[in-house]
Design a protein that fits this description.
Blueprint lengths: L1 H26 L2 H22 L5 H24 L3 H8 L14 H9 L6 H11 L5 H8 L3 H17 L12 H20 L11 H17 L4 H14 L25 H19 L6 H14 L8 H11 L6 H15 L1 H9 L2 H4 L3 H13 L3 H14 L3 H12 L3
């Protein structure tokens, strides 16, 4: 039974975006596509324990979702005396022509639809995580630090706006791509981060399905816009983080921090590709093209992954890169990460002063309290460190991270 449940969960995660995207292309209705995909997964939960897991779970879910969509359309159209929409799903009409050179991919079309500039950024992110990433409303709400009701309303309003504004389900024309890609990259970065450090209760601490899908879609964006530096920078950033994925959680389910990871087990192919992309962007910077946020973050990760041992890390270079990043992204999270580099160069006391200045803006952010806890521990202020660890544990949503923070707190004695 446990194996069947695991198969349902795996198939849902792997096939959700493909099913929703295909149904959206065929029927032009995000609500219908989402509901049909959800009903197909629910049917699998009911039938697979008795009938067994089908040889091709994805095809089974797709076929079932199509039938659910057809049934729903027929029920609604019967009341209206219309039947054309249900026939549309059977006929699978050709998709309207894409701009010349566009990539044929249903999920990429869905991504641009969810990230349309007519939608507010929070709505774009929430809708993409739901429709493309397949996250549940509670998982997204936890990531956004909002209530499930608020998040659900945000998604509902976004879908209603897409329908009311007749936002097209297609990849934008070439001349429109540069203006549209910034919002898409921001969403893909958040999808990747949710997979890299999953926040949902009961989910794996690292969700390979989300990181892989974010990387796949970012590669497509880079193919569409090969000269876009930020697309290359984001891809490099994702690859360098993904290269460390298998070393980030121990066999006991505890987060393994960067300085403690087995660097010999990192994926050298991904690191080589990430470093190559970073070097390309450094060449562009030398030619006078200023790097963007993702390019600088990728460069920071390149410095980390260049060190054969954590003790060989070039913290001065990392600090210089953070100083370059802050004017572009003056967020408290960037300032917090910069303080970690300061701690390595100037000591924990100097870094703690910088961190404490962020208290008002990061009081609800678990990494802020975890960073304070570590700095206080290094300064021998154990009681204060324990209190900071307690707060970080309360706020953290990742099971592996909670296990790590708990062990560090308990080591204080």
């Amino acid at each position: 039974m446990a194996d069947v449940r695991a198969a349902v969960t795996r198939a849902h995660h792997e096939e959700w975006a493909r099913i929703v995207a295909t149904l959206t292309r065929r029927c032009g209705d995000l609500d219908l596509a989402e509901e049909a995909a959800a009903e197909a997964s629910a049917t699998a939960v009911e039938r697979w324990p008795a009938e067994g897991v089908p040889p091709n779970p994805g095809a089974w879910l797709t076929t079932t979702a199509h039938r659910k969509a057809i049934d729903r359309i027929r029920r609604e159209n019967k009341r209206d005396g219309k039947h054309q929409e249900a026939q549309t799903l059977w006929d699978d009409p050709a998709v309207p022509a894409e701009p010349p050179g566009a990539i044929e991919d249903d999920r990429l079309r869905l991504l641009f639809t969810c990230c349309h500039p007519a939608l507010a950024m929070p709505a774009r992110v929430a809708l993409t995580l739901r429709m493309v990433g397949g996250l549940t409303v509670p998982e997204i709400a936890r990531a956004f630090l909002v209530t499930e009701t608020t998040l659900g309303q945000r998604i509902t309003r976004a879908k209603a706006k897409i329908k009311a504004a007749r936002i097209p389900y297609r990849i934008p024309a070439a001349e429109d791509l540069p203006a549209r890609v910034t919002g898409v990259l921001a969403v893909l970065y958040l999808v990747f981060n949710e997979g890299y450090l999953a926040t949902g209760p009961g989910t794996d601490p690292v969700r390979r399905d989300l990181t892989a899908e974010a990387i796949r879609l970012t590669r497509l964006i880079r193919t569409l816009l090969p000269e876009d530096g930020e697309a290359a920078g984001l891809l490099a950033l994702m690859l360098l983080a993904e290269a460390r994925r298998t070393t980030r959680v121990s066999a006991s389910g505890e987060l393994v921090t960067l300085d403690e990871q087995d660097r010999g087990s990192w994926d050298t192919t991904l690191i080589a590709e990430g470093h190559r992309l970073v070097r390309e962007r450094l060449t562009a910077a030398a030619a006078g093209i200023a790097p963007g946020r993702y390019q600088i973050l990728a460069a920071i990760n390149a410095v980390h992954t260049s060190a054969r041992d954590a003790r060989d890390t070039d913290w001065a270079q990392i600090l210089a890169l953070y100083d370059q990043l802050l004017p572009l992204d003056p967020s408290p999270v960037v300032a917090l990460n910069r303080a970690i580099a300061v701690a390595e160069l100037d000591g924990p006391e100097v870094a703690l002063a910088s961190v404490d200045r962020l208290a008002d803006r990061l009081a609800g952010y678990h990494a802020y309290h975890a960073t304070r806890a570590d700095l206080l521990r290094r300064l021998g202020r154990s009681q204060e460190s324990r209190a900071a660890y307690d707060r970080a544990i309360d706020l953290a949503g990742n099971t592996a991270e909670i296990a790590y923070l708990t062990r560090r707190r308990d080591q204080l004695g």
